[in-house]
Amino acid sequence: MNFRPKHDDDVGIEMVPLIDVILLLVIFFMVSTRFVKESEIQLTLPQASAEVKSAPPAQIDISIDRKGQVFVKGQALVNSQLATIEQALRDAKPADGEPLVVISADREATHQSVIDVMDAARRVGLYHVTFPTTARDEE
Questions:
Q1: Are 64 and 101 in contact (CB under 8 A)?
Q2: How many structural domains comprise the chain?
Q3: In terms of residue numbers, what domain contains 108?
Q4: Is the pTM of this model over 0.90?
Q5: Residue 75 in contact with residue 108, Cβ under 8 Å?
Q6: 75-115 pLDDT, tens digit each
Q7: What span, in angstroms and rounded, lies between the C-alpha atoms of 103 and 64?
Q8: Which candidate, 14, 57, 83, 91, has a CA 20 to 30 Å from the CA of 49?
Q9: Is 33 among the domain residues?
Q10: Does residue 37 belong to any structural domain of this protein?
Q11: Would you say residue 98 lies in a domain?
């Protein structure tokens, strides 16, 4: 019988020496790096005297009841036609700044009456419109 010795000729990369070499390279580069302080621009910034709070924007309250009657700042309009709503919004619009238009519509009010008010606001140049709501009761 011919017994040949088994040779383990596993060719592989030894990881420990590789890690040692990489660690030595990292240390070498860390030691040999020069840290140069770049030139800085010397600035003297102004100091704020106090926190500036902006005043809340003016507000135009518009209400629409279930029958479609429109109220601008609590005053009922003679009718709900687009021209009447536009004129009321022009009268309520302040000369400076853009007010916030708050449209409070009854849940039974028609969508068309709300759209008419939004259209009148757009024609007058009032673009910040919001709708207040109430939270639903969890049942």
A1: no
A2: 1
A3: 59-130
A4: no
A5: no
A6: 899 998 999 999 999 999 888 888 999 999 888 889 999 99
A7: 8
A8: 57
A9: no
A10: no
A11: yes
